[in-house]
Design a protein that fits this description.
homodimer, 300 residues, alpha+beta, 11 strands
Chain lengths: 300, 300
């Protein structure tokens, strides 16, 4: 997990005295390279992926990197080590970066955010763990927003140690070799002395995944709507019926024929409530394309 | 070392497959808090120290924090673990932040730098290790420049793992307790299984400190000079006689009576050559106060 960053040793040994409040990670170098280039140059997803492949940062079949599952596998390992039970991949929320457009990155910048493929692991109520891996808006002032290119970084918040962050090369033969050598040395020491096994008990004993629909978050919502009066009122109405408030709105000038973008930053809401509202919004005649929804992480 | 940051475990275990090319650390939270406040507000050293004491970030007797030796003790431990022999404190270069003025921070900012109390540990030629702890100009674009307040951070460059960085709370009872708990767990495991001792051999077998005079660095030099033509030529001449080039010059408008500040960024030079040049410069009649000299670290 995370190539040269010794995050497993940190979670399992160095922070053994902590309860983990949250772990936030940029865990896939390919996705981060693509999003970084999109942010730096304004280019769209397809040419950025093309560039990453030419430079050897993306595999010929980049599916697992792009669709979020490579990062999700690592997040599941980290969450399992941090909380002591194996998480079921079917119970976490995973989305990739294919749906991020140059326009989204521009709107996010205007709102004071960067878009990263972020793994979010949080302790919730009643031993429930929230895990998601998806394109996420991060405040530009947060150190994770400055992690660029193929680098990985993981921010860990422990109840005793407080905030900490680990940064390094997340892939490549040399950084990975550095970690493998450390593992071999540990295994060689264990040959002489069988150490306590870091086993896990069954899923139900120590905790469970928070159901995806119950996870609460702020959201970035981009719609394509008709350019006429009253549209914002209809959208706000549909959100309001689900008890969801709006934090801010960007409505740029018309660009693409009759449909124009409408970007909303949405207040804390359960994902299920948000999905219900999106169902109503999609059905409105003034909405011309499927809504684009990203999580916003404020690290509170 | 560094409170909640598990840097000793990283150096000793996680990066066991690496030769360390360099370790750069912000290792004293008190100094970093003071320099951060001076940078944020433009205040001078004395009121910033006063504020740190009122907030409990500095001891009633803050000498070890302020004069660089608290950070130096930690740097010696890190260097000894990284290179396998104990370094002699008398052979390293240590300076504190008392000599940093609000003007220095302003000039550094103008030149694109932040001033930090930085521990620099570098592998040199022929098994010589360069270690210094002193106020150091860091490029604003480097991640260490953004480590503010009482936080600590350590950037490690290994020949296999490449660049990595570790960030967290460097002091305080909770972060330190987190590290002590991890140490106790490790000690408890070792009770059952006496593990290989991490001992060191004698000083001379594996390496030695690079003599302070031989260490090469760029420098920030601030002089108080007479405000008349020909002064810069005399200073540049004295540096040139020692074979030292100038990278850039700031000569602000006169502020303090007859003496005005003259700030020079000086090219790579051995510390002994720089001291020789400073001797000549101090003796010039146009130079009105002892020169102020800080290292500049470009992380190359």
């Amino acid at each position: 997990v995370a190539g040269g960053i010794p995050i497993i040793k940190v979670v399992r040994e160095a922070f053994v005295g902590n309860q983990f409040e949250s772990i936030h990670g940029i865990l896939n170098g390919t996705s981060n390279y693509i999003l970084t280039r999109m942010t730096e140059t304004g280019m769209d997803f397809a040419p950025a992926l093309d560039e990453a492949q030419k430079l050897g940062y993306a595999e010929a079949d980049p599916a697992l990197d792009i669709n979020g599952w490579d990062a999700a596998h690592k997040a599941i390992i980290l969450a399992s080590l941090a909380y002591g039970f194996w998480l079921d991949p079917a119970q976490i929320s995973v989305a990739g970066i294919e749906g991020v457009t140059a326009a989204d990155i521009r709107f996010a910048d205007e709102l004071g955010y960067r878009i990263k493929l972020l793994a979010t692991i949080k302790a919730g109520p009643e031993r429930q763990i929230e895990v998601r891996v998806c394109p996420t808006l991060i405040p530009q002032t947060h150190v994770l927003a400055s992690v660029n290119g193929v680098f990985n970084a993981i921010a860990v918040r422990g109840d005793v140690v407080g905030e900490s962050l680990f940064y390094g090369r997340g892939a490549g033969q040399d950084p990975t070799a550095s970690s493998v050598i450390a593992d071999l040395v540990e295994a060689a020491l264990a040959l002489e002395v069988p150490r306590a096994c870091y086993g896990f008990t069954s899923h139900d004993l120590y905790g469970r995944c928070l159901p995806v629909g119950e996870a609460v978050s702020k959201y970035y919502l981009r719609l394509a709507v008709e350019d006429r009066p009253g549209v914002l009122a209809q959208i706000a109405g549909a959100l309001g019926e689900s008890g969801i408030g709006i934090l801010s709105v960007i409505q740029p000038e018309g660009l693409e024929g009759e449909a124009i973008p409408l970007v909303l930053m949405v207040h804390d809401a359960a994902y299920s409530a948000m999905q219900a509202a999106l169902g109503k919004i999609s059905a409105l005649p003034c909405v011309k394309a499927p809504p684009v929804l990203f999580h916003v992480e404020s690290f509170s």
